[in-house]
Write a structure and sequence with these properties.
Length: 272
């Protein structure tokens, strides 16, 4: 397997594992876990918006002069995808059919998480770690939410666990794998554009779906969870995260420097 695919798939599998932990917790202590799911979501939102605005978005602006346009498209695209699902599958039927729209939204969201893993890792290792780590944080809450949706609409515990895992867990590594294979043949310009697009989508996810619990949680608890996510983001930014997975432009630059050093074995570069 190419090195460029290993990291996003690994993080996708880790996200599925965290989703499984959420499903196990809700199966064992359903009431407590359901009550705390909003706090997990807010913490993930605070972390994601901080890392996106402080690292991922600035890096996208450096890579592509049209990054603001692509970021706007990513933000609006996420909004339209969510709205499109609600329009295509209105909650008009009774019983289990009512679970279809929110479950499709969860599945699509998780699949896009996997796509973001591949795009960010294709651009730079650091951005991939930041985006993937903050997105993984909300997988626990996502598994709980998917289970709660299914349970509320007549699914038995075993059925709810299976379908919640398929929608919220298995779709993330699938998205990383499918998009990772597709990205391997793309040039640096396309990767940079997709990276900016993913930054806009991350801003939508952080400020939209992940912030919804602010309307439901007590103000102090909600702000505390949000602040905890921001603090974790700052601590993560202080870590010396480096790796060997970079975009094609970065690899070309490194190759050019390497050839230049070979031409000058002394290691001393003559002035231009």
């Amino acid at each position: 397997m190419p090195l460029s695919l290993q990291a996003p798939i690994l993080f996708g599998l880790l996200a599925a594992l965290v989703t499984s932990f959420g499903l196990i917790a809700v199966a064992v202590r359903s009431e407590w876990t359901a009550r705390q799911s909003g706090l997990f979501s807010l913490a993930a939102g605070g972390m994601l918006i901080s890392l996106t605005l402080l690292h991922i978005a600035p890096e996208a602006l450096q890579m592509n002069a049209r990054a603001p346009f692509f970021m706007l498209c990513g933000f609006l695209g996420g909004l339209m995808l969510t709205s499109g699902i609600n329009i295509a599958f209105p909650e008009k039927s009774g019983g289990r059919a009512l679970a279809l729209t929110p479950l499709l939204a969860v599945g699509l969201h998780s699949f896009l998480d996997g796509v973001i893993y591949s795009v960010t890792f294709a651009a730079s290792f650091e951005a991939g770690v930041y985006a993937s780590t903050s997105l993984i944080m909300h997988e626990f809450a996502e598994g709980v939410i998917a289970f709660a949706i299914l349970s509320r609409h007549g699914f038995r515990v075993r059925e709810a666990l299976i379908w919640a895992f398929l929608a919220a867990g298995a779709t993330t590594p699938l998205g990383a794998l499918v998009s990772g294979v597709f990205l391997t043949g793309l040039g640096p310009g396309v990767v940079a554009a997709l990276y900016a697009l993913s930054a806009g989508l991350l801003i939508y996810v952080a400020t939209g779906p992940l912030m919804q619990p602010l309307k439901e949680e007590p103000p102090l608890r909600g702000l505390a969870a949000l602040g905890a996510g921001v603090l974790i983001a700052f601590l993560l930014l202080l870590l010396p995260i480096h790796g060997h997975i970079h975009g094609a432009a970065g690899e070309h630059e490194h190759e050019h420097e390497h050839i230049h050093v070979l031409k000058d074995p002394s290691g001393i570069h003559p002035p231009d």
